[in-house]
Amino acid sequence: MDINLITNILYMTIITGTPILFVALGELVCEKSGVLNLGQEGMMLMGAVFGFIVAYHTESLLLGFTFAMIAGVLMSLLFGVISMHLNANQVATGLALTIFGSGLSAFVGIDYIGKGLEGLSKSNIPLLSDIPVLGKILFSHDILVYISIMLAAVLYYFFKNTRAGLIVKAVGESPESSEAIGLPVLKVRYLAILFGGAMAGLAGAYLSLVITPLWADNMTAGRGWIALALVVFASWRVERAIIGAYLFGFMSIMHLILQGFGVSISSNLLATLPYVVTIVVLVFLSKNQARIKLFAPVSLGKPFHSNR
Amino acid sequence: MFKLESRGHDSKLLAYASPLFAGVLTLICGSILFVLLGKPPLETLYTFFILPISDLYGLSELGVKAAPILLCAIGLAVCYRANVWNIGAEGQLLMGGLVGSWAALSLLDAQGMWVLPSVLIAGMLGGIFWAVIPAYLKTHFNTNEILSTIMLNYISLNILLFAVHGPLKDPHGYNFPESALFSAAQELPILFDGTRLHLGAGLALLAVVVVWVFLSKTFVGFQMQVLGKDARSAHFAGFKDKKLVWLAFIICGALAGLAGVSEVTGPIGQLVPNISPGYGFSAIIVAFLGRLHPIGILFASLLMALMYLGGEMAQINLGLPLAMTGLFQGMLLFFLLACDIFIGYRVVINKRKPTRHIEPAVLSNPSGASTSNLAPPVSLENK
To answer: In this complex, do A100 and B330 lie within 8 Å of one another by their Cβ atoms?
Structure first.
């Protein structure tokens, strides 16, 4: 096999895995605090559309990414108010967020379909990017790829070594006990939800400003849902989420690769691959319920009514 | 400050009123949106909600649009009553449409009364096939049905696209991604001349009655609802919970499949890439809006169909984007969730914090025994 081809495949794998990694990290923090937000897809779409619109008008990608995160945060705030303050079912609220986000983003983005802009440029890391093969695969990406990995490292440290990380985990395991020892359960959960929103917004903008710099209805194509499966796959561990994200990234470009090899299967059928793989992975993971019980935050998805 | 306080029991009245409140709030928010878009709110609302059904043809179109939504929502309601979170009605609908079309195209030259029922049954089997996959995964591997059904939605859409671009494409269709037109023997009969209202709407009404009887009058229906309310009780009562989960999925798959096949053999008349503008997702909203009750769902599906028609009307008459419909649906579901809180909780206004005081209380032992003086002094603090 051609070394250039392999290089390109791995290079693309990292790029397509990055938005999934962002969403998965956001959702991971959220789920660690005991909140199951199924609205990732909706928040991503809002991030994608607002990121694109702002970047299109201001010609500033930085502003685009910033507003994408703000859009994600606002959406997650809506989820927070309804699921935390009004005690609504988290599953139903998350689904509503996705339906709402997909409707609102299609509505807002109606005038921007078919318009393009210049996406985020690659920033080669000096010296390192000159290494043959590895330099191209690892060190000649855009800045957000590096940020996503740094974020993962920070979160790993956060959960492993900081008091705040421990508090988030405690709130996710037992909100009642956490409240009894004086931890601000709702505040912690809100922060986790908002962080998840920001990350989903950023991931959406990564799609509409980096991978394919344009806006199309429902352009996230289920990546938010795949990220939810990924958090289970990673058994709520940051380091495994990185591996998982790139694995799913690889799966989603698989059809391009196979076509490159001249495999003559319909591109529509090949496009089902990431979804099929997600189901297969879920089946293998959920077969072992004991393992999931061991790793999942105990209070995940359960409503909590503060007594204060 | 406001505070939510548990009512202790659910308010029946508010359970029925909450969808109405949600509808009114959606209308108010919609009007504000119209004003922001520079459209006269009353006229726009009129275009959205009255104009589409102001004549008989409009009313018949309402039935055409409501039929698939109603079928899907009834099926979903059975699932949700059994606490099975099936989000896959859209995929099951697409599969029903696809398999039904395949059957119709294989029977293109056949004549007779048996052709249409065969096509419809093929469509239902297609929907059932797509629904038993998550049922099997859930009962055998404990796979979360939300994620599996959503993935199956994406998969079925791609299979449908593959079929209309490939094996089911009309060989004489100038390479358009469409199947050949179905024959007259395969099309659902029109109920009223001059309209597009087809037998599918009648089948949907039949489904309402059948599912209503099933849920409220049969033992299996009862078992399913017990399973949904409290899985442990169902288990201790000896109900076969896995079979119930399968049944819920099969019912939903069959109804969603029927919705799909009656779209292709009804108003569309051939297999096309976009046989559904998200009916399976709207059906989720409809199921909740109709309180998971067949009659409630009937009304909710009419409202949802009206939103689709109104969206089209507002696009034609006022140049508003069609995506408005999706936005309205999302708002409606959100407002419903928010309003539903008041079924179980009421808002109380916190008065000023009571000042701390310590009662010199000596709690008497309820049994009246002489240990009462051993009870520690209790400070009653109002937090």
So the answer is: yes
CATH class of B40-319: mainly alpha
How confident is the prediction along chain A (308 residues), in pLDDT tens digits per residue?
Answer: 577 778 888 888 888 999 999 999 999 999 989 888 888 999 999 999 999 999 888 888 889 899 999 999 999 999 998 888 877 888 888 888 888 898 889 888 888 887 877 777 777 677 676 777 676 777 777 788 888 999 999 999 998 889 988 888 888 888 888 888 888 888 898 999 999 999 999 999 999 888 888 888 888 888 888 898 888 888 888 888 899 899 888 888 887 777 777 777 777 888 888 899 889 988 888 877 777 777 778 878 777 776 65
Interface test with B, best of A45, A95, A305 (most B CBs within 10 A): A95
The C-alpha angle with vertex B283 and arms to B290 and B96, in degrees rounded to 5, equals 135
CB B382 within 8 A of CB B354: yes
User: What type of residue sits at position A151?
Assistant: L
Contact A228/B166, CB-based, under 8 Å?
A: no
User: Closest residue of A to B287, CA-based?
Assistant: A92
Q: Contacts of residue B338 in chain A, CB cutoff 8 Å?
A: 82, 86, 88
Q: Which structural domain, as residue segments, surrounds residue A204? A: 3-295
Q: Give CA–CA dist A187/A175, Å, rounded.
A: 12
Rounded to whole angstroms, the Cα distance separating A236 from A24 reads 10
Domain ranges of chain B: 40-319
Smallest Cα distance from B147 to chain A, Å: 7
As for how many domains chain A has, the answer is: 1
Q: What angle do CA B178, B184, B185 make, to 5 degrees?
A: 115
